């Protein structure tokens, strides 16, 4: 609980021994205060009264306010047995054993005499008495009855009948008479229910001491016979199942050689219950692992347990009789504790968290429950506080909170904590009129690291990147991992965009340093998008969205760069999202169609095939070419179903032309996504089966990037396609980094020269050298050569002179849904 709100109760309640102690002690102290017949008081080793219940005030004629803090011997005189009384108390302190119950004749301060039946017993800690409790019952009335009985033998029957104590006359072992008080005590309707029975008939088989009632009764009876009388305590069990305790004075008389006796019994069940409760409470009090402190109404300490000393470092002897020690801490003002007492005064209970300082100046979080105990007059008589060390609970809570707010791999703040810190940074920026930068970071091509080296290496790389990012920012900034290879940085309270650019540059340099893991040296780069508050947004969602857009553009522009957000970027992203959503319905709405561009043999001028080119007839945007939507389709996972549709349509059209007498092949471009999907071979088989087209009339064009992947799955897929008789062309050759060693691994049939080389014929000498070289490479691999993008006779002549086999382009024909398949000029 904070010092700002001490009057609010907390939700935590200690469990186990601490809570048990709180409940037991509260009931016990309340019972002692309200007990009408048992006077209970306690003294310390110096004989000073530390506890004085309500009945004590009646018995001794001294209020608790007057008694507590004074010597017990100053509150009443034990007359001629004063020394005997002191010796009795000293014996209990020395031996640690309860003194036998006995009668004491006292004189109160007001001069009145009283007879008290007293039991003194110690409260021990580690076997050493700490306090002396005394439970006393006023037996003055009984003493009068006994005196009258002795003095007025002639009136014995009258005294016998009106005695408030139960009296039974015994001959041998059998009861021969009982007074009305005895009938009430034994729950009997008349004397016939008692006479003729023995006291053992009203006793349990075993006494509380563990001794059988028969053996114990024989010993006590013999003692009374030898000494003349004997006083003892006895547990009785009645036929109706009830039990009670009685103090028994058994007196033995021999008359005419007959053994007679009478027993005077007094119900002491309330006192025994109080003794039991006190003993149990004392055990719980001392054994409790929680610190417990008991005070009087003036906040003077009357009892503390061992756990209190362990918790606070304050010994019991240092606090007994003094005011409650404050749990002094720099976290709480003095008024904090006064507010607690004020709250208890109104509500009788307060609990909350307090910081306690041990003597070693160690701060300890403590859960404190303070309860007011009221007497029968509804006045506060005592206060009880139970204190629980919650250090481990706080540590566990902190650990749980840390796990909930931090990434398990890098230990960076996760999205939950990041959003909270960003919100705080924005609030501070508005107040200080400063700027906040949000940097969205994505590691370039990180998936390849996992695929090539394994996820354990990928995890090691992420942890190293997290460390490097943290080293690039200030303590007030936040680096968070959002998941995968994405990180977000908050640059709080910056002066301007230059500072953000400087940090972005530092981050790129730090990430670019090779990471060594598991024997590998791994090079990295990062794309960063930056959004600035307030220019690019004033709220969390807007800033994150704009930083993400900027990061996307950094990747689009070649990666390994950082980009600041601007409005044009956002418009582009919005358009891309719209295209993605519209693409998802284009297939089902039959918005796609194919155009075909003839492929012409240079030597004969005959059309030997066509290339299928995808078009999108958009209902609002009009005709869209592949470069306007293919990349979006690949990124959102739609390229595979679109590619399957193209295959089926192209194969079906090629078969139709063949049936019409124009047996031309059809070339279909394959996307890298179709290779990664794993179902490409099945898709080709289905397209050929459904169309009835022979495999040799299908030419699949594969990009250099797919060839360069070089993994076993790609090699196996290409081999399976070639085994079926399908033609295979490496597309856009010269734009990538393929090598002869890679090309030899694939059973290709044709090589297509990229239009970028053809466009430069015959202006550039470099091109004049490159195209013959490419053709020479194809010849060494036994591949046919086709050039795309031929638009002039000069270009065609150059290609013919250097041995190119086929060509396509506007010079031959534009692409259309119904291509012209007639021979072309050579």
Automatic annotation (TrEMBL):
Coiled-coil region list: none
Annotated ranges, domain PAC: 350-402
SUPFAM superfamilies reported for this sequence: EAL domain-like (SSF141868), Nucleotide cyclase (SSF55073), PYP-like sensor domain (PAS domain) (SSF55785)
Domain PAS: 24-96, 277-321
UniProt xrefs under InterPro entries: Biofilm_reg_signaling, EAL_dom, EAL_sf, GGDEF_dom, Nucleotide_cyclase, PAC, PAS, PAS-assoc_C
Entries under Pfam families matching the protein: EAL, GGDEF, PAS_4, PAS_9
Sequence ranges assigned to domain GGDEF in this UniProt record: 434-567
Protein origin, superkingdom: Bacteria
Domain EAL: 576-826
Cited PANTHER family: BIOFILM ARCHITECTURE MAINTENANCE PROTEIN MBAA, DIGUANYLATE CYCLASE DGCP
Protein name: EAL domain-containing protein
UniProt organism field: Massilia mucilaginosa
């Amino acid at each position: 609980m904070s010092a700002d709100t001490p009057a609010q109760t907390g939700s935590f309640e200690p469990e186990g021994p601490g809570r048990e102690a709180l409940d037991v002690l509260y009931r016990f102290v309340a019972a002692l205060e309200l007990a009408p017949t048992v006077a209970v008081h306690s003294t310390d080793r110096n004989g000073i009264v530390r506890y004085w219940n309500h009945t004590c005030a009646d018995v001794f004629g001294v209020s608790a306010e007057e008694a507590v803090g004074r010597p017990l011997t100053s509150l009443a005189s034990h007359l001629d047995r004063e020394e005997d009384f002191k010796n009795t108390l000293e014996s209990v302190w020395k031996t640690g054993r309860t003194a036998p119950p006995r009668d004491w004749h006292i004189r109160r301060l007001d001069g009145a005499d009283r007879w008290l039946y007293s039991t003194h017993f110690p409260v021990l800690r580690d076997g050493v008495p700490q306090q002396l409790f005394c439970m006393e019952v006023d037996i003055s009335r009984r003493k009068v009855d006994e005196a009258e009985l002795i003095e007025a033998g002639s009136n014995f029957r009258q005294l016998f009948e009106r005695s408030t104590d139960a009296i039974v006359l015994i001959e041998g072992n059998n009861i021969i008479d009982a007074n009305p008080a005895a009938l009430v005590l034994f729950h009997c309707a008349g004397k016939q229910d008692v006479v003729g029975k023995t006291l053992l008939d009203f006793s349990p088989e075993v006494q509380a001491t563990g001794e059988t009632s028969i053996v114990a009764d024989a010993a006590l009876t013999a003692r009374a016979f030898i000494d003349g009388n004997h006083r003892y305590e006895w547990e009785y069990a009645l036929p109706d199942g009830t039990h009670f305790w009685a103090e028994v004075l058994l007196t033995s008389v021999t008359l005419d050689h007959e053994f007679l006796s009478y027993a005077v019994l007094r119900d002491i069940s309330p006192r025994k219950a109080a003794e039991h409760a006190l003993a149990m409470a004392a055990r719980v009090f001392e054994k409790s692992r929680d610190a417990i402190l008991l005070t009087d109404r003036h906040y003077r300490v009357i009892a503390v347990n061992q756990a209190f000393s362990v918790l606070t470092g304050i010994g019991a002897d240092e606090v007994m009789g003094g005011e409650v020690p404050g749990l002094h801490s720099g976290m709480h003002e003095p008024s904090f504790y006064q507010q607690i007492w004020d709250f208890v005064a109104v509500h009788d209970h307060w609990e909350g968290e307090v910081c306690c300082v041990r003597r070693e100046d160690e701060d300890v979080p403590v859960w404190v429950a303070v309860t007011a105990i009221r007497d029968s007059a509804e006045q506060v008589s005592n206060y009880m506080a139970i204190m629980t060390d919650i250090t481990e609970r706080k540590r566990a809570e902190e650990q749980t909170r840390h796990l909930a707010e931090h990434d398990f791999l890098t230990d960076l703040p996760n999205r939950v904590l990041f959003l909270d810190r960003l919100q705080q940074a924005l609030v501070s920026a508005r107040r200080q009129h400063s700027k906040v930068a949000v940097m969205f970071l994505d590691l370039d091509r990180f998936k390849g690291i996992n695929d090539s080296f394994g996820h354990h290496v990928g995890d090691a790389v992420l942890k190293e990147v997290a460390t490097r990012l943290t080293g690039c920012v200030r303590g007030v900034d936040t680096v968070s991992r959002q998941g995968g290879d994405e990180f977000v940085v908050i640059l709080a309270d910056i002066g301007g965009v230059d500072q953000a650019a400087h940090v972005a540059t530092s981050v790129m340099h730090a990430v670019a340093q090779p990471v060594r893991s598991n024997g590998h040296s791994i090079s990295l780069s990062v794309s960063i998008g930056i959004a600035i508050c307030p220019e690019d947004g004033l709220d969390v969602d807007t800033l994150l969205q704009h930083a993400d857009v900027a990061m996307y553009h950094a990747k689009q522009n070649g990666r390994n760069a950082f980009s600041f957000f601007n409005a044009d970027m956002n418009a582009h992203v919005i358009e891309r999202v719209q295209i993605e959503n519209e693409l998802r319905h284009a297939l089902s709405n039959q918005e796609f169609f194919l155009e075909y561009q003839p492929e012409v043999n240079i030597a004969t001028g005959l059309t030997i095939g066509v290339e299928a080119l995808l078009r999108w007839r958009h209902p609002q945007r009009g005709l869209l070419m592949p470069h306007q939507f293919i990349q979006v389709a690949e990124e959102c996972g739609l390229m595979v179903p679109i590619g399957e549709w193209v295959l089926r349509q192209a194969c079906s059209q090629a078969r139709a032309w063949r049936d019409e007498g124009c047996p031309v092949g059809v070339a279909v471009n394959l996307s890298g996504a179709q290779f990664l999907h794993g179902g490409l071979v099945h898709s080709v088989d289905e397209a050929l089966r459904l169309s009835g087209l022979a495999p040799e009339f299908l030419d699949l064009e594969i990009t250099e990037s797919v060839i360069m992947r070089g993994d076993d799955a790609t090699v196996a897929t290409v081999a399976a396609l070639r085994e079926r008789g399908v033609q295979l062309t490496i597309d856009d050759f010269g734009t990538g980094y393929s090598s002869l060693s890679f090309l030899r691994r694939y059973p290709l049939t044709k090589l297509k020269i990229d239009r970028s080389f053809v466009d430069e014929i015959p202006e550039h000498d470099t091109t004049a050298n490159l195209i013959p070289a490419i053709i020479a490479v194809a010849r060494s691999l036994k591949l046919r050569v086709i050039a795309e993008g031929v638009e002039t006779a000069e270009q065609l002549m150059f290609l013919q002179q250097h041995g190119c086999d086929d060509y396509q382009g506007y010079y031959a024909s534009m692409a259309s849904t119904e291509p012209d398949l007639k021979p072309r000029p050579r």
